[in-house]
Design brief:
14 helices, alpha/beta, about 25% strand, about 400 residues, Rossmann fold, 5-stranded mixed β-sheet
């Protein structure tokens, strides 16, 4: 089988001096931090420039008289244990050596109020601090649509609220999640503990494109406009109808569901309307990112996986995350075949060589590979450069050699 390389013309707008941009954004906010311990949230996503951004935030806070520290803020991720969440933060490079910031990790929370779906909680270290700076990337959510999706508010509500607030949020029906998110976020802002938010926007090549600092009381008001800006950069697949999508690697470093549901067109939430585009008949996932540390939430969105992916799953970590969200189908184990080569061979028996696409993961789709019919179709696509030199699909010890 031969494939052809497609380079997507995604929007490229990388910030050249990221620490300087962080300081400028915080200065322009026009608000001094509280004089005392200030918590900075640290999630589990593979955010571009996460280490220099976090270090720059800590440096700015110190320059203004505060005493910053890091708090792992990732809901129920990495086994919902203090040790597991600290290891996740450190695996992303957020170590004391790299940032100069102490990590205070705990699953203990303080109740700050209630909404229809349950109680609203805040990490104990955040609650006991003089203030909290929420740091996160703004992007589309993988489970619901609304004016606020994945970003500062969700980090404040679900990340900082640990497993207890995560359970409250995810117990709501997907169509009610936008309202619940706003209500829970409002309670947290009203607590007086949220000093500010630092919102990150990434361009089509996963580079930091914009940095916005918002006073805590403006987070809920200003985040919808930032989500609209994110749509301007969001990378998607260049066609809406595929027979086969091969994803080389999945994991929470790429998306909260391992594969971004907005890219693959599958949310996997029983009883609720799914996305209509793109339409993909068969999805195969070949490997799990080591940075996911065994959490394979989203594996159930695939139809086929390899034995190496299955063997890399930490079922306890994945269960805790899936059980908290309530979407158990997302951890269901798909049909497991020996290796990458057997998956490709078996799927070709059904679909032949028509309408195939190979991507490294759902976050980085600037360079992809497609079957000949799609390459010919995409030659006229305004956002694609198609290289019509055939590339054999080769394997080494059963492993795909495209990426």
């Amino acid at each position: 089988m031969n494939v052809f390389q497609i380079d997507q013309k995604l929007i490229s707008a990388p910030i050249q001096d990221v620490p300087k941009a962080v300081h400028r954004a915080l200065d322009q906010m026009g608000k001094e931090p509280p004089q005392g311990d200030v918590a900075i949230t640290a999630g589990s996503r593979g955010i571009s420039n996460l280490v220099p951004i976090t270090k720059a935030v800590g440096d700015w806070l110190r320059m203004h008289g505060a005493k910053p520290f890091l708090v792992p803020s990732m809901g129920s991720h990495n086994g919902a244990t203090a040790t597991g969440q600290q290891k996740m933060v450190e695996s992303l490079g957020l170590t004391f050596a790299a940032t100069g910031l102490e990590i205070r990790s705990s699953m203990e929370c303080v109740k700050v109020g209630s909404v229809d779906s349950g109680e609203v909680w805040m990490d104990r270290h955040c609650f006991d601090s003089a203030g909290v700076l929420i740091l996160n990337r703004i992007k589309l959510h993988t489970c619901f649509s609304g004016p606020v999706q994945s970003g500062l508010t969700k980090m404040m509500v679900v990340g900082m609220g640990k497993i207890r607030s995560a359970e409250t949020f995810h117990s709501a029906r997907p169509d009610r999640m936008p309202r619940i998110l706003e209500e829970m976020g409002s309670l947290l802002v009203q607590s007086g503990k949220i000093f500010a938010g630092l919102a990150l926007l990434e361009d089509g090549f996963d580079a930091t494109a914009e940095i916005h600092a918002l006073p805590g009381e403006r987070i809920l008001k200003d985040e919808p406009a930032l989500l609209k800006r994110h749509r301007h950069y969001f990378p998607a697949l260049p066609c809406d109808n595929l027979n086969v999508l091969i994803v080389d690697e999945i994991g929470k470093t790429y998306s909260g569901t391992g594969m971004d549901t907005n890219v693959i067109g599958r949310r996997g939430v029983h009883g609720f309307e799914d996305l209509t585009q793109p339409t993909i008949k068969t999805i195969a996932a070949l490997g799990l990112s080591p940075q996911a540390q065994g959490n394979a939430l989203g594996v159930g969105l695939a139809d086929f996986i390899t034995r190496r992916l299955r063997d890399s799953i930490d079922e306890q970590k994945t269960f805790v995350n899936a059980f908290t969200t309530g979407d158990m189908q997302r951890m269901a184990i798909p049909c497991t075949l020996k290796d990458d080569e057997e998956i490709v061979v078996k799927i070709r028996e059904r679909f032949g060589d028509k309408r195939w696409m190979f991507i490294p993961n759902t976050l980085h789709v600037e360079k992809i590979f497609v079957s000949q019919d799609l390459a010919e179709e995409l030659q006229s696509h305004p956002k694609c450069n198609a290289n019509m030199t055939p590339i054999p699909v080769n394997f080494s010890a059963g492993r795909l050699q495209l990426f």
